[in-house]
Design a protein that fits this description.
heterodimer, A: 279 residues, 2 domains, 0% strand, globular, B: mainly alpha, MetI-like fold, two-stranded antiparallel sheet, 4 strands
Chain lengths: 279, 309
């Protein structure tokens, strides 16, 4: 039917462009991982070839595992990310429900107030946040990071979720009310399951910047106990500027967990991002 | 309805309970510290006391050569950083999304997944990986340029003042291209089939269909991406810090407002941290971002027609 719109040269052209860009996107990642399994001579002699039995070497990994406390940093990052994500989704969905479901005085104003944080980055408040955390004794705790990231993630979460909650059918909620469900039950039992795809979108948008953030861990929680994996990797890489084996191995160790998670969840993740479009 | 006749309904506690946690955390951790930061910019620490000095800190920032040289340099660099993003990241993002959204394109899930990979990596990984690739020590970049016969073009970009900022901006573009791509892709998918079919009936296909039908429909998304890029760029920090350190070398040529704020507020090497000057810079960044957002909301968004399907 639509053969007129598609011709062979055009399809080939599209694939050529997409493939070129895919190579550009993946090349640095593959290059780093590939070279992390090589000896020093292999890294410098032939950087673009995969490791051969002659150049294969795990010296980089043994150095890294002997030196850095990556597992511990990884755990910290996980606690912070999961903790913040939980609060952002729970509090965000609750506020979004209140704003989209009920008409009350100040509704629009409250929505605008919460939306302010979408555009104004919390980073600008750092000076006073540090003072606040010092005053409340939360410096160098993971709690400080979770609090900050929850505040950071809430505005966008409320905004996106309230858009989606407006689409949940009123008949369904009213049927629930007639059956005697409380407002809380309607929210948790009826509405939340229906907006789960958009919760995934919010989770993705919230999670990536938290996991990758360097600014707040650097300023609020730089102690050895509370270092996140991003900060740990940064400091570690700074120390080993001349040991290329160790750097490449450390980079690979930082890339791999994220990459594996991404490959497993990419389908849900991308469906989440585009779900706004293809309801 | 009874509720409409009575002027006051009983207070609906559940609304307050639904709103309270979000509003409390947001106000306590974000809004109050933001206000506190703006306030701090009007004070100065004199003999261990915070003294109100009006706009003196701003005068120092703009006029005192110790600060103003670095400040204007950082601002200029930041504008350039943003221009590169707008000129490179968004057009490429739109192009990739347009190609991806063509129906029945094979492997589109694979392309989507692969092109989004850099976006999920942290700045530390991206900064260091590119630092290694562009390093003349390793020789990957000259080696690759040799393949296309352009080896003579290679210089250690990150180490040269005139190239370093552009090179880092492009690295940042490389990292974030997935976001405009995905948002535009979602917008393109949301265009109803009837519109496209109507266009095809009128003989509008291929490129002209994209320019005449799809592009006007995704303009609101492009507006959103532009303002997101603006906000993201004017508070960027991590990539520069990772690749070039807090001093944003060589010779401050990659210094942007984020790194400048970090040095002023936290101190670095010989420089002692000064929370009040830090707050002053943060206030300027706040005003820049607020200005950008207002331009978007009042000038751009109101002129874009939104199409409701």
């Amino acid at each position: 039917m639509s053969t007129a719109t598609r011709s062979l040269p055009r399809t080939i052209g599209a694939h050529a462009i997409l493939l070129t860009y895919t190579v550009i996107a993946l090349f640095p990642v593959i290059l780093v991982i590939m070279n992390s399994f090589k000896s020093r001579a292999g890294i410098f002699g032939a950087p673009l070839t995969p490791p051969t039995p002659k150049t294969f070497d795990l010296i980089g990994y043994t150095t890294v595992i002997g030196q850095g406390d990556f597992f511990h940093y990884f755990q910290n990052s996980l606690v912070v990310t999961v903790g913040s994500l939980f609060f952002v989704l729970l509090f965000g969905a609750m506020a979004a429900f209140a704003l989209s479901e009920y008409r009350f005085r100040g509704n629009t104003l409250m929505g605008l107030y919460l939306a302010l944080g979408i555009m104004i980055p919390i980073r600008l408040a750092t000076v006073a946040i540090l003072q606040l955390m010092v005053a409340s004794g939360l410096v160098n705790t993971l709690t400080a990071l979770i609090l900050v990231y929850t505040a950071q993630g809430l505005p966008l979460a409320v905004f996106i979720l309230s858009e989606f909650m407006k689409q949940v059918s009123d008949d369904l909620k009213n049927a629930g009310r007639i059956d005697g469900l409380s407002e809380y039950t309607i929210f948790f039992r009826l509405v939340v399951p229906l907006v789960r795809p958009s919760m995934a979108t919010v989770a993705v948008f919230t999670m990536i910047p938290i996991w990758n953030d360097l600014w707040f861990p650097l300023i609020l929680a730089p102690s050895e106990e509370t270092k996140t994996v991003t900060l740990g990797a940064q400091l570690f890489l700074g120390q080993f500027v001349t040991n290329w084996n160790a750097i490449l191995a450390a980079l690979s160790l930082a890339i791999l967990p994220v990459l594996i998670l991404y490959v497993i969840f990419s389908r849900q993740l991308i469906r989440g991002i585009t779900s706004g479009a293809v309801k | 309805m009874a509720a409409d006749i009575r002027p006051k309904r009983p207070f609906r506690w559940h609304i307050a309970i639904f709103l309270a946690p979000a509003v409390l955390v947001y106000t306590a951790i974000m809004i109050l510290p933001l206000a506190g930061t703006l306030q701090l910019s009007l004070f100065r620490n004199i003999d261990q006391h915070q003294v109100f000095v009006g706009f003196d800190n701003f005068r120092t920032l703009f006029g005192d050569p110790n600060w103003s040289v670095n400040f204007w340099n950082a601002l200029r660099n930041n504008v350039w950083f943003f221009i590169i993003h707008m000129l490179v990241q968004n057009p490429i993002g739109v192009l990739l999304a347009a190609l991806l959204s063509s129906p029945k394109l094979r492997f589109s899930a694979f392309y989507r997944t692969a092109i989004f990979v850099p976006t999920i990596l942290s700045f530390v990984i991206v900064g260091f990986a590119w630092k290694l690739i562009l390093s003349p020590l390793w020789g990957v970049a000259p080696h690759l340029l040799d393949f296309v016969g352009l080896k003579s073009l290679f210089t250690p970009w990150l180490g040269k003042e005139q190239y370093a900022l552009t090179a880092l901006s492009l690295v940042s573009v490389w990292q974030f291209i997935g976001i405009p791509m995905m948002l535009i892709y979602a917008a393109l998918l949301s265009i109803p089939d009837e519109v496209i079919e109507a266009a095809e009936c009128d003989g509008i296909t291929g490129m002209s269909q994209f320019w005449k039908i799809k592009l006007p429909l995704i303009l609101p998304s492009i507006g959103i991406i532009s303002i997101l890029t603006f906000v993201g760029n004017f508070n960027a920090f991590d990539l520069i810090y990772t690749a070039q350190g807090a001093l944003a070398g060589p010779n401050y040529s990659t210094d942007i407002l984020g790194t400048f704020l970090y040095r002023a507020f936290f101190g670095f090497q010989l420089q002692v941290g000064d929370p009040n000057m830090g707050a002053t810079i943060a206030t300027i960044m706040f005003l820049i971002i607020l200005g950008g957002v207002c331009v978007y909301l009042f000038l751009i968004q109101t002129r874009l027609r939104r199409y409701q399907f």
